């Protein structure tokens, strides 16, 4: 019988945030208790039209994690100063308000997509800053 893990964690490839995400998950006592999916932009990468070819890969991977690891929750961790956010909207720079709107839209789109495909899966939406502070964006 497959072991049930607590969650899947969707996070970004940005090396600045890898240790911060791991520290955060360790503080939550999730070390060794989650499946991981790391892709440029995190929720932006799996929802933005600019990265459309990645969407199916994420959904297939999530479906596999649900099947193999019996996960019940997706923890999506986006981050500030996100290069993928800039690429998604074709801008060289974004102010904090613009970037926040992009994170919000990505999370909203992800929630809508998950509700259709995996209606029982819970979604936690977080944004981490360069200091490792986490903000919960309730969608």
Helix share bin? 40-55%
Determine the mean pLDDT.
Answer: 95
- N→C terminal distance: 34 Å
Order of helices and strands: EHEHEHHEE
Structural class: alpha/beta
Please tell me what the overall shape is.
Answer: globular
The strand line-up of the biggest sheet is 2-1-3-4-5
Question: Total strand count, please?
Answer: 5
* Rounded radius of gyration (Å): 14 Å
Q: Which regions contain 5 or more consecutive residues with pLDDT less than 50? A: none
How large a portion of the residues is in β-strands, by DSSP E?
Answer: 15-25%
What does the largest sheet look like?
Answer: 5 strands, mixed
Number of helices: 4
In short:
This protein is α/β, with parallel strands linked by helices and 139 residues long. It has 4 helices and 5 strands. Strands 2-1-3-4-5 form a 5-stranded mixed sheet, sandwiched between helices.
């Amino acid at each position: 019988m497959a072991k049930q893990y607590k969650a899947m964690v969707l996070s970004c490839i940005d090396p600045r945030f890898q240790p911060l995400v791991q520290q955060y998950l360790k503080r939550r006592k999730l070390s060794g208790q989650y499946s991981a999916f790391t892709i440029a932009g995190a929720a932006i990468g799996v929802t933005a039209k600019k990265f459309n070819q990645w969407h199916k890969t994420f959904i297939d991977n999530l479906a596999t994690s649900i099947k193999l690891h019996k996960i019940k929750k997706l923890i999506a961790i986006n981050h500030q100063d996100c290069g993928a956010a800039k690429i998604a909207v074709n801008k060289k720079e974004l102010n904090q308000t613009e970037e926040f709107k992009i994170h919000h839209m990505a999370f909203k789109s992800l929630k809508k997509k998950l509700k259709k495909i995996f209606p029982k899966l819970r979604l936690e939406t977080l944004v981490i800053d360069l200091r490792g502070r986490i903000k919960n964006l309730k969608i």
